[in-house]
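Colleagues,

For the teaching module next term, I've prepared a clean inverse folding example: a structure given as tokens, and then the sequence designed for it. I'd like students to try predicting residues themselves before seeing the answer, so please don't circulate the second half yet.
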């Protein structure tokens, strides 16, 4: 047909699949100018090709198909300027979010790249002075099994994503000192995510600067008791009084490996010299 393009031609010229063009027709976004009643073949006018350009450009900018369809019912320079300015705001917010995600990924990669150093420190207790940091926490329900811990952790992640909180892509748990002394090493009462300081939520806790004794546990979580015993023995033999519950930071976990034997967990207590 003169001055008309078949669906195959439009597909080739615009580098878009026939299936996509058929879908656009079904939703009323880009309908053919003529459909042959004998065979159902779709044909498009030359003016429509320009119209399709607009659709594809708006889609590339980030508009949904629903937004594009509504806008193109009747659009002019004024209405186009309004929606494009609005989309600029959306893009700026996305850029800010991507920068935050990028910084979190860099932090996670740095931890993973240091994994070999952590493995070399297995069974070695380290004394260190920590800077203040913040955690987003959620209480773990009784009886404090791994199931309840997992649920609390997942709720932390879900809340942080929903509220767009500045978390790091890392998780951890708090195990009461009394549990550890009773040999209940895996019974954490709170799950947490390291986070930047924020006033968006109230369940934020600051871990203060202070002297800490830490150890890196390598292996599945159920075997973590051996590292706790090593840490407790060190504190006792070096006259260090433990003055906090245990904070466990997952360095390498289910997020970055499927093999539990590769798990790396940093355990730390705040301590002070006895008599101080």
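(Answer key — instructors only)
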């Amino acid at each position: 047909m003169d001055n008309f393009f078949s669906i195959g031609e439009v597909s080739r010229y615009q580098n878009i699949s026939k299936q996509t063009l058929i879908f656009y027709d079904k939703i009323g976004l880009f309908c053919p100018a003529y459909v042959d009643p004998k065979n159902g073949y779709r044909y498009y006018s030359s003016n429509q090709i320009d119209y399709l350009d607009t659709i594809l450009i708006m889609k590339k900018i980030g508009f949904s198909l629903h937004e594009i369809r509504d806008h193109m019912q009747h659009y002019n320079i004024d209405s186009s300027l309004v929606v494009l300015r609005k989309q600029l705001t959306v893009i700026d917010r996305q850029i800010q979010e991507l920068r935050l995600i990028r910084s979190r990924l860099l932090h996670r990669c740095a931890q993973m790249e240091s994994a070999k150093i952590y493995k070399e420190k297995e069974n070695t207790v380290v004394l260190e002075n920590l800077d203040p940091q913040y955690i987003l926490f959620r209480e773990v329900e009784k009886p404090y099994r791994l199931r309840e811990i997992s649920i609390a952790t997942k709720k932390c992640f879900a809340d942080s994503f929903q509220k767009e909180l500045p978390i790091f892509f890392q998780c951890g748990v708090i195990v009461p000192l009394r549990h550890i002394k009773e040999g209940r090493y895996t019974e954490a009462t709170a799950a947490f995510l390291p986070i930047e300081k924020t006033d968006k939520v109230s369940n934020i806790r600051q871990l203060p600067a202070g002297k800490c004794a830490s150890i890196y546990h390598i292996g599945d979580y159920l075997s973590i008791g051996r590292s706790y015993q090593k840490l407790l023995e060190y504190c006792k033999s070096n006259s260090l009084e433990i003055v906090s519950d245990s904070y466990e930071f997952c360095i390498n976990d289910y997020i970055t490996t499927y093999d539990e034997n590769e798990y790396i967990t940093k355990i730390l207590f705040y301590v002070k010299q006895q008599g101080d």
